[in-house]
Structure formats: structure tokens, C-alpha cells
Amino acid sequence: MSTAETIPHDELVQPIDDDVVDAEVVPPSGNPCPACGCPVEPQDKFCPACGTPSEVVEPLKPVNSQDDQHKFLQCNSCGAKVSVSIDQRAFVCPFCDSNYVVEYSPEVAGRQRPEFVIGFQITPEQAEAKFYAWIKDNKWFRPGDLRLAKVAEKLRGVYLPFWGFTMLAESRWSASIGEYWYRTETYTTMENGKMVTKTRTVTETEWWPLDGEHHRYYSGYMISASKGLQQADADRIKPFNLPALKRYEPFYLAGWSAEEYSIEKNEALQICRQEFYRREQANIAGFLPGNTHRSLVVDTQFSRESSDLCLLPVYLLSYRYKDKLYRFLVNGQTGKIAGDKPISWQRIGGVIGGVVGLLVLLVILILILKSLG
């Protein structure tokens, strides 16, 4: 691949640093909180997720990995597969706000077991408060008939599946490297009706070809394994603090919903390779000598690829307004939010109309004053 334009080095994107997952993943310790399921370390006095005093945290046996504690539901509208608590009677799909949900057997799906998990650190109350603060921002442009209480009831904490990959990129590259040099030239120009002679500094570029090799390990880019959560939306609530990943145990899901992955590993691998190729290009471009470069071509081969299936905590809120689907997301670990909300075009139109009317009145007033003067 090549670029036709000339790119000054001081305008280049800096080399990309990767989010690195700890080489040694810490196994879960302590007991799950009976209120929310988050692991409580022995030295903690309170649950880090919901604040329940540790004095009431009693040892719990790990939740059986079979379906004795959860039932498995599939949305007929968007295809999402979610496990929920067995005592939950009603269920609305958190991805598309659909009620068309049926039960299915996890044995039929034959899904890979998750390998790592990050527990919820944001409580449902905190997530709801973030939603209200977000939706009320610029509230004047929000439709007046949007019933916030009914919308907020749909906020759900869900463990969503993500694929993580580590791979070695080995590249051959070639480019034209440019070195600036400067010369002074004389020119004439017209000033105040007279021809004058001036000088100016002109930047010239000397080009020469260069090629080389580059290699680097890449990791830390999490690929959404859910067809209900597009990668672009997942990127909006990143990053996750990946060194907090722990070995998956079923008790992490106590009290929470969890989605089965619907994007296969090979499909996610292709997405990840594209991102790591983009990073490899940026890293090579950032270390090229000279003042500028052009026609950079990078040929990359990936090897030593490994993958992990991780469950990451996300609060989802999907709702419909005037037959259009809107979504609000909260990173359940860091609290970062993203979403789209409806706006009232009637109110916006009223503001625009008011501004235009005010400008017309000012013009009329100016004309009247001029005629009087």
C-alpha cells in the first residue's frame, strides 16, 4: 500500500503503544459477593462493586457451569444469545429492545468456554446516575414526550464476549525519504504602484529510496464477539484495564446476564489483523529517517498467533423512540459512557427560526435608523 501525498514527520501520528495484558493472570481469590457476584478479596471490608459489608459475605460454592443456575435465551430479532438468572421471568433483549426471546440449550450451541473475565466495578445505581446525567445534558433539545423513567428501567449489566489476540508482525517496507534544504531567491512585486525587489526562503526536498525490516508483538485490542455490539460501539467505551483480567469462574456471573459469542474466532482474527497492520504501518512511519516521506509500502506477515475469549462488563440500555433504536453504553469497569439520544427537530427548528427572525428584525431596525438619519 502506498500514499501519494508527502507527509512531514512532525505531522505523523506517534508510534502506537499497545495495551499489554499481564503475562501472569491472577487467579480469582476470596468469595463472590452474595449481592452482586463480584469477587471480594479477603482483606476487603466491603464489596468493591456494590459496597456490601464483607462481614456478611459467606463462602459460596462456585456456580455450576451447567444450566442449574442460569437459563439460556436467544433473541429472534437480532440473534443475541444471553444467559440470565433462572429466577428471571421476563426478559427484553438488551441489544435491540425486542421481546421476541426464546429459550435454547447451551449444549446445542457448542460454544467455547470463556477463559478470562473482568468483574463489574460500577454498580447499577452508578450506571443509572450516569445515564440520567448524560440524557439530561442539552435537555432543551430532547423530545418532551421521552419518558425517562421507563427508559432507565431497561438498563442492564451484561458480561459481553470479546476476542483478544496476541501476534508477531514481521514486515518488509520501502519508502521515499525526503530531506529538507533551503535556498534564498530574489523576486519582484508591485507595492504602492512601484516595482520592488525582495528575497524569500524556499524549502526544497531531496528524495532518496530506502527500505528495511521491522518486527513487533501486538496485543490488547479487544474484538467484540457479539453481533449485537458493533466494533465501532465497543471502541467508544474502551479501554478496559486489561491487567485486571482473571481466570474465568462461573460464580462471576452470579446475578448478571452474560452473552454467548456470536462472532467466530476466525472472523474476529481478520478484524484484529487489520487493526494491527494499521498500527504496524504507523509505527514504521514514525521511525523513518529524514524530514518527510512518501510512497510507504508495508508488506506484513503475522505469526505466533494466540487467542483468548474474555467476558467484559458492560451496561446496556436499548430503547425505541418513534420506531428508531437508540443505545446507551457504560463500561462496567471504568465507567466510560457512550451513546446516541433522540433530539427534537421541532425545538431545533424553533431555535433556528427565532435566530433568523431576530436577524431580520435587526436588519429592519438598521434600515429604519439609516432612513431617519
Q: Which SSEs are present, and which pair or pack?
A:
Elements: E1 7-8, E2 31-32, E3 39-40, E4 70-75, E5 81-85, E6 101-103, H1 106-109, E7 116-117, H2 124-135, H3 148-152, E8 156-191, E9 194-218, E10 222-224, H4 231-236, E11 246-247, E12 257-260, H5 265-286, E13 292-321, E14 324-331, E15 337-339, H6 345-372
Parallel strand pairs: 7-13, 8-12
Antiparallel strand pairs: 1-13, 2-3, 4-5, 4-6, 5-12, 7-11, 8-9, 8-10, 8-13, 13-14, 14-15
Protein name: Double zinc ribbon
Keywords: Membrane, Transmembrane, Transmembrane helix
Transmembrane segments: 348-369
Characterization of the model:
With 373 residues, the protein is an alpha+beta fold. The protein has one domain. It has 6 helices and 15 strands. The strands form 2 sheets. Strands 1, 4, 5, 6, 7, 8, 9, 10, 11, 12, 13, 14 and 15 form a 13-stranded mixed β-sheet that branches. A two-stranded antiparallel ribbon has the order 2-3. The termini are far apart. The N terminus is likely disordered. It comes from Blastopirellula retiformator.
